[in-house]
């Protein structure tokens, strides 16, 4: 199952790729709602007409309802994860989870404590549960999954099973699928898992200490004025030859009706750092990755403003121990108040002996 974040190109077809590797490739979408991330499978055209998929705070009740009414199913993703899972919103705002029939309670990117709390939420609300690897790397594919009674070979079959109140499925960890493996009748409760442990092994240790008040606090970070001269100099510096950036005559007849700037020009701006979450952990840190999303073309004459925040602090456990990730986001908006880009960088903090 491939789920794209805040984007879904209905014209893409993976049948040839699936056939080449004798695999089944099913497609979904992961949208962001006011109760966290939500996976949507098999939704019809009405769903894509109803929502701006780039919106990071879609009303969850509408998402679940329209997904169902258009013939699909919505599933609450990584339900136990802070802010981007449903649990925290239930705890803090007493969200009723109207229309929610399935939650992902065994997630390969969540730790054991978060998964335990997600399971407890589903159990108390009589919501059915699935598992998923939430893999962003090949090495973690299948870390968690869902076992169905029969073969699932199409998105239509998956949706039919998830919508059917009488169908049977359970979330599992990869090691529980091995021949002779014991599938536990119950998993450790959240009380048993304090201090936090990871989904990949017993870690222990104190609960992570950091300044939670700065999370999601967006501040002004700086400005960048886009001129034709600045675009030209940037293209010269990186040997950029794409005519939509350097050839005004070609660009006027192109998709943007004029010269636009390469998205990388945003990297030339000096931007202030967001508030420091002051994480009390680790001795060294390094870049863990970046995610760049460009929403609108950047044109000569645009006056851009940057707004920065610490989007998220979370922890995982790798084979070599505990890791803490800090995700910082820069949101660029133009003079019309339109978002043109969302740039995220992740730093990982490690305790090196």
Keywords:
353 residues, Thiol Ester Dehydrase, Chain A, alpha+beta, 5-stranded antiparallel beta sheet, 4-stranded mixed beta sheet, 2 domains, TIM Barrel, 13 strands
Under CATH, the topology of the largest domain can be stated as TIM Barrel
Instruction: Indicate the structural class.
Output: alpha+beta
CATH C-level class of the largest domain is Alpha Beta
How many helices in DSSP terms?
9
Q: Which regions contain 5 or more consecutive residues with pLDDT less than 50?
A: 195-204
**What is the oligomer described by this structure?**
single chain
CATH architectural group of the largest domain:
Alpha-Beta Barrel
Number of domains: 2
Distance between the termini: 39 Å
Spatial strand arrangement across the major sheet = 9-11-12-13-10
Mean pLDDT: 89
Shape: globular
Calculate Rg over CA atoms.
22 Å
Largest sheet: 5 strands, antiparallel
Q: What string, H for helix and E for strand, traces the elements in order? A: EHEEHHEHEHEEHEEHHHEEEE
Number of strands: 13
Helix content: 10-25%
CATH superfamily of the largest domain: Metal-dependent hydrolases
Percent of residues in β-strands: 25-35%
């Amino acid at each position: 199952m491939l789920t794209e974040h805040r984007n879904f190109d209905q014209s893409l077809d993976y049948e040839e790729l699936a056939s080449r590797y004798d695999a089944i490739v099913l497609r979904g979408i992961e949208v962001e709602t006011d109760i966290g991330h939500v996976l949507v499978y098999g939704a019809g055209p009405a769903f894509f007409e109803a929502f701006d998929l780039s919106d990071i705070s879609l009303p969850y009740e509408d998402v679940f309802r329209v997904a169902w009414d258009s013939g699909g199913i919505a599933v609450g993703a990584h339900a136990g994860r802070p802010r981007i899972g449903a649990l925290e919103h239930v705890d803090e705002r007493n969200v009723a989870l109207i229309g929610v029939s399935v939650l992902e309670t065994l997630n390969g990117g969540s730790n054991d404590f978060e998964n335990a709390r997600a399971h407890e939420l589903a159990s108390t609300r009589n919501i059915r549960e699935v598992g998923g690897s939430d893999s962003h790397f090949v090495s973690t594919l299948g870390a968690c999954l869902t076992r169905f009674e029969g073969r699932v070979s199409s998105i239509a079959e998956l949706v039919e099973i998830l919508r059917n109140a009488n169908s049977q499925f359970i979330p599992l960890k990869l090691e529980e699928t091995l021949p002779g493996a014991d599938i536990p009748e119950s998993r450790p409760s959240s009380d048993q898992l304090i201090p936090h442990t990871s989904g990949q092994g017993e870690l222990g240790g104190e609960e992570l200490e950091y300044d939670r008040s700065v999370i999601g606090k967006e501040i002004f970070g700086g400005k960048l004025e886009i001129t034709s001269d600045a675009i030209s100099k940037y293209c010269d510096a990186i040997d950029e030859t794409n005519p939509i950036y350097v050839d005004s005559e070609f660009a006027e007849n192109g998709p943007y009706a004029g010269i636009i700037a390469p998205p990388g020009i945003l990297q030339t701006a000096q931007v202030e750092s967001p508030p420091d979450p002051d994480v009390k952990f680790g001795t060294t840190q390094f870049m863990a990755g970046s995610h760049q999303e460009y929403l609108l073309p950047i044109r000569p004459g645009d006056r851009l403003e940057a707004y920065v925040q610490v989007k998220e602090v979370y922890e995982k456990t790798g084979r070599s121990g505990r890791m803490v990730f800090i995700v910082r986001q820069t949101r660029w908006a133009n003079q019309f108040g339109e978002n043109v880009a969302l740039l995220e960088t992740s730093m990982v903090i490690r305790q090196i002996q």
